[in-house]
Amino acid sequence: LATGPRQNNGIFYEIRTYDIKPAKMKEFLEMVSKYFHFRTAHSELVGFWYSELGAMNKVFHIWKYDNFAHRTAVRQALANDQDWQGKFISAALPLMEKQHNEVAYLVPWCQLGKPPKEGGVYEWVTFEMKPGGPALWGEAFRAAIHAHINTGYTTLIGVFHTEYGLLNRVHVLWWNESADHRAAGRHSAHEDARVVAAVRSSVRFLESQQNVLLIPLPCSPLK
């Protein structure tokens, strides 16, 4: 199957999703605030959020690695970090119900962005695409993404396609000033003929979609 243009470098992103026990979310977030600096001392954290709408009792975090050797070295260092293992991992694991991770690359036509200011909310949109990769759906998907950007109500942070985990999956991360601003913008976009046309062209490659509203944690570089 076509997978699109070759990666220009080895950089990839590990997307980690944890389901936290409902009664333990507050305790988990407090532990992250107190001890997560032990983890970020080892590698670059892109963002860390908890779910508000569209999923419950979940946290999402994204890590950037230069290549797979880099990730292996970081994981080995973490295993030997007594502060990380003793103060966070040993106490946090009993608070979790399950963990899931994916390795993803930015699509060839997207660079990792930043919001225009701190504050606001993030939206994590997961698309299950038909097999074929960006070479198949990339141009139509890109047109749909840029049609939404051109309305001016939202800011694109990144578009990631999976390499490990569930394949044919694309994650799109957006930033909005508020949930209400996002809702008003989407209502307006749905009445824009350019957006409607672009979305209709791209959905022929779509199997399913899930949207989750995310709130950044204080430790998150993306706030």
UniProtKB/TrEMBL annotation:
It comes from the Eukaryota. GO terms for biological process: mitophagy. Gene3D superfamilies: 3.30.70.100. InterPro entries: Dimeric_a/b-barrel, NIPSNAP, NipSnap_domain. Residues 13-111, 122-221 form the NIPSNAP domain. It holds the Pfam family NIPSNAP. GO terms for cellular component: mitochondrion. Belongs to the NipSnap family. This is NPS3A protein. The lineage of its organism: Eukaryota, Metazoa, Chordata, Craniata, Vertebrata. The gene is Nipsnap3a.
